[in-house]
Design goal:
single chain, alpha/beta, three-stranded parallel β-sheet, 4 helices, 5 strands, globular
Length: about 110
C-alpha cells in the first residue's frame, strides 16, 4: 500500500474553518485519515503557534493561551500526530500578530520526507 503524510498549517486551517465554515468541531484524526484514503497514513504534522502573551499577560491572554494549550495537548495525543510550534510575534506599529518559523518548519519537513 502506498504511504502518505499529512501537513496541516494550523493557523491557516483554523481561519478557513472560522471564515468559511463558521468554526465547526473537527475530528482531526478522522480528517487526516479521510485525506489518506487508499494510502497508509504515516504521520500527520500539525504546525501552529501558541497565542501571544504580553509581559505581564492580561487575563484574556492567559485564558486564550490555556485554551490553546489544551487543544495542542489533545492534538499531540492523537494516533500518529506530531505538533511543531513556531512563535507568534506582535508588531506594535501595525498592531498585527505574525507567525514566525511555521512555514520554515513545514517546508523543512516536506523536503525531508519527499
Amino acid at each position: 500500500m502506498p504511504r502518505a503524510a499529512v501537513f496541516i498549517d494550523g493557523g491557516y486551517f483554523s481561519k478557513v474553518l472560522k471564515i468559511v465554515f463558521n468554526s465547526p468541531k473537527i475530528n482531526y484524526e478522522r480528517f487526516s485519515d479521510n485525506l489518506c484514503v487508499g494510502y497508509e497514513r504515516l504521520r500527520t504534522y500539525y504546525y501552529d503557534c501558541m497565542p501571544y502573551q504580553s509581559d505581564p499577560p492580561t487575563l484574556l491572554q492567559k485564558e486564550r493561551y490555556a485554551a490553546h494549550d489544551k487543544f495542542i495537548y489533545n492534538i499531540k495525543r492523537l494516533n500518529r500526530f506530531e505538533v511543531k510550534l513556531g512563535k507568534l510575534i506582535h508588531i506594535p506599529s501595525s498592531n498585527e500578530y505574525v507567525q514566525k518559523r511555521v512555514d520554515v518548519l513545514l517546508s523543512v519537513d516536506l523536503v525531508r520526507m519527499s
